[in-house]
Structure prediction request, 121 residues.
Amino acid sequence: MESKKEKINALITDCSNGTLSTNIEYKTMNARFDSKESLGKLSGGERSLVDLSLVLAMLKFSPAPLYILDEVDTALDISHTQRISNMLKTHFTSSQFIIVSLKDANVLFSTKFEEGISRNA
Prediction:
């Protein structure tokens, strides 16, 4: 039985002209992370950066006016969080972002739950 990797490689090999039969254009990329063999062997922060890279590449390809990101920086240290923030400011100037984070931010909202009702704290 073929593995998933073999099936994907076969599909890519069969589509050597750059388009699939459904006329979807694609590009492939090989990435290595300090000689780690698979994404499963990456640290949480490294996986977060890979995930964010893929998501942001898709957002750049097909932009929207508003994005909501929930705790995407949880596994990142402060320097990577700041770099992601700066990248969003420079590369997505026509979009707005609502980013939920447990780290320091430029705008803070706080709510408290009293008697079954959420109120501003």
The chain has one domain: 35-120. The mean pLDDT is 76. The beta strands are 66-70, 96-100, 111-114, 117-120.
